[in-house]
Design goal:
The protein is an alpha/beta fold. The chain folds into two domains: 182 residues, Lyase, Ornithine Decarboxylase, Chain A, domain 1, CATH 2.40.37; 263 residues, Alanine racemase (TIM Barrel, Alpha-Beta Barrel). The protein has 15 helices and 23 strands. Helix 2 runs parallel beside helix 10, helix 5 packs across helix 6 and helix 8 packs across helix 10. The longest helix has 21 residues. The chain starts with 26 loop residues before the first strand and ends with a helix.
């Protein structure tokens, strides 16, 4: 690599496995120096199950699910209430993972008839399921009511009539929440509070009293509280504080309307996680976030002189994200000259200069093409997300290089890892491991370019088993009529 502003020796180890992003079991074997996950070598996994491959560390998923649930429930108890923790299945769902979540004491949040189907197939107690969606079909609503889903989250006024009719026809009383927009949008590091929400989910908070009044006219509906999900990948609790304060601000009014306290408050999910080493120190600790949320709700209840409602949360990525690793095989590489000065260079590239042993902007980028891409991980293309990558099949002492890992699809936005640092001799045939792919990767996967979806393999204590089948060429062909 040439550079624009001189070199210095980099003490950075581009082979190191960062335990803040990879699952806790991920480490290099002492003999083979290969990355192992759940005590199994990466290449053993790709030899047995193919490449690309989603790998799910069962212990990591289970212990995170347990830790998140325990923290939220412990802190709710500390302030004198209770909490139900729903796993947001949209992040990743198959029968096996749903079973892990149920065994770890989590309820399940589903957002479609399909997710409901899988949750039930996993043996979930229907009473422990929450059903979301801004456009649930009548058939989905009828099925949810019929199987006894614990709570349906009403998203629109039209839905009130649909759910009430389904419950009446089934001779049941259906527990419902109303999804509202508190006007607070949270993003990774800050939040934005507005009075209007120009988006499809939920109803404006200012309309909540009127709409709850409508819900209360139906004997077949049991209104249990408001629901608000302020966003995803949230790093600070300020947004939750403002949102909870706004929601509790209408609880006294709702209680007066209902003639009873409103028993529950669902604050949604969205707890942020680190996807890259650079983000690792800023990512919130779940225990800390749980303590802050409990205090926020207790303070809000005090402010409005309310009994603290029972709490509900719906974390997805913070439960399953870090348990997942995707293995890819490198097909081609090429070096692109960047040629820019420090001023022209991308600041995120420049930030990696110390790892590259440079004192200024990198002048080259090594493009590394792998055998998957936006069909197995749409998040970089959808959200501009970044990921962390390591060579899994070996270690190397080659000088570090600025890399961009790209897929095999016909889109220039087909990027898996925007920027990271790998040994510069990364080459065709190498196995790459991309960390934190447990959430919203398989779930958002597609067949773009007729690339078959890879399987998902669970690893634990030296054993690997397929928990989601990959697609075959026959299945791809069978789509055409
Ligand atoms: C209503 C609702 N609840 C929970 C979640 C889960 O969010 P996360 O995976 O960021 O925790 C989402 C994500 O979109 C959501 O829309």
């Amino acid at each position: 690599m040439t550079e624009t502003a001189g070199t210095q020796t980099s003490a950075f180890d581009a082979n190191a496995i960062d335990a803040r992003v990879f699952p806790p079991s991920a480490r290099r074997g002492s003999q083979c120096e290969q990355l192992k996950i759940g005590e199994i070598r990466a290449t053993e996994l790709t030899e047995q199950f193919g490449s690309p491959l989603y790998v799910m560390d069962e212990q990591a998923a289970r212990s995170k699910a347990r830790a998140v649930r325990e923290a939220l429930q412990r802190e709710a108890r500390r302030v004198g209430t209770e909490a139900t923790v729903y796993y947001a299945t949209k992040a990743f769902l198959c029968v096996e993972v749903a079973k892990w979540m149920i065994e770890e004491g989590l309820a399940l949040d589903v957002a479609s008839g399909g997710e409901l189907l899988v949750a039930l197939a996993a043996g979930a107690d229907p009473a422990q399921i929450g059903f979301h969606g801004n456009n649930k079909s009548v058939a989905e609503i009828e099925r949810a009511v019929e199987v006894g889903v614990g709570t349906i989250i009403l998203d629109s006024e039209i839905e009130i009539e649909r759910v009430a009719a389904a419950a009446k026809a089934a001779n049941k009383v259906q527990r419902v929440r109303l999804r509202v927009n508190s006007g607070v949008h949270a993003s990774t590091h800050d939040f934005l509070a507005t009075s209007h929400e120009d988006q499809k989910f939920g109803q404006p908070l200012a309309e909540a009293t009127r709409i709850v009044g409508q819900i209360l006219t139906h004997d077949s509906l049991d209104f249990v509280g408001l629901h608000c999900h302020i966003g995803s990948q949230i790093f600070a609790t300020d947004g939750f504080r403002e949102s909870a304060r706004r929601l509790l601000g209408v609880y006294a009014e709702l209680a007066a309307l209902a003639g009873r306290p409103i028993p529950e408050l669902n604050l949604g999910g969205g707890f942020g996680i680190a996807y890259t080493s650079e983000d690792a120190d800023a990512a919130p600790d779940v225990a800390k976030i749980a303590a802050e949320l409990a205090d926020i709700v207790a303070a809000g209840a005090r402010e409005y002189d309310l009994q603290i409602p029972k709490l509900a949360f719906e974390p997805g990525r913070s439960v399953i994200g870090q348990a997942g690793v995707t293995l890819y095989t490198v097909g081609t590489t090429k070096t692109v000259q960047l040629g820019g000065s420090d001023a022209e260079a991308n600041p995120a590239d420049v930030a990696l200069a110390p790892q590259l042993g440079l004192t200024g902007a990198p002048s080259e980028r090594l493009y590394v093409s792998v055998d998957g891409g936006m069909s197995d991980n749409a998040r970089p293309a959808l959200y501009g997300s970044d990921y962390h990558v390591r060579i899994a099949n070996r270690v190397s002492t080659a000088a570090p290089a600025l890399v961009r890992v790209v897929g095999k699809h016909c889109e220039s936005g087909d990027i898996v890892v925007q920027r990271d640092v790998l040994p510069g001799d990364v080459q065709p045939g190498d196995t790459l491991a991309v960390a934190v792919t447990g959430a919203y990767c398989w779930a958002l996967s597609s067949n773009y370019n007729y690339v078959p979806r890879p399987p998902v393999v669970a690893v634990r204590d030296g054993e690997a088993r397929m928990i989601v089948r990959g697609e075959t060429e026959e299945e791809l062909l069978a789509k055409s009529v």
